[in-house]
Amino acid sequence: MASNVNAGATAPEHAEYVDKPEGPVAAAILAAGVGALALGILTTLAEASEGFKEFLTITEPVGPLSGKTIGAVIIWLVAWAVLHLMYRTKEVESRKALTVTLVLIGLGVLGTFPIFFQAFAPPE
Description:
Keywords: Membrane, Transmembrane, Transmembrane helix. The chain is an all-alpha fold. 64% of the residues lie in helices and 0% in strands. It has one domain (23-119). The relative contact order is 0.22.
């Protein structure tokens, strides 16, 4: 016959469960949106300005894509750090943060579509 070790065990009556603020989670989610938007903006700016495209060319074989991605990652990390410091102890509505992030990601993706960023290219 098997015995149940936890039979009759109950949680302590004085145990309290403390909700943690959702600010750090919202900060991470929002920073992802900011990073995606940064990539879209850098892509569009590189197409709009030959000088900016050259500035973004960190390594020649990769071309301006190297600067776009490194720049977007740096912006994402800075945004995450700043937002984390702002929201680390605050209650932030996660649904609102997610909605804003989805809009930012949508705008960032739009900025990476050739039909969009080529509209900003200088006339040839």
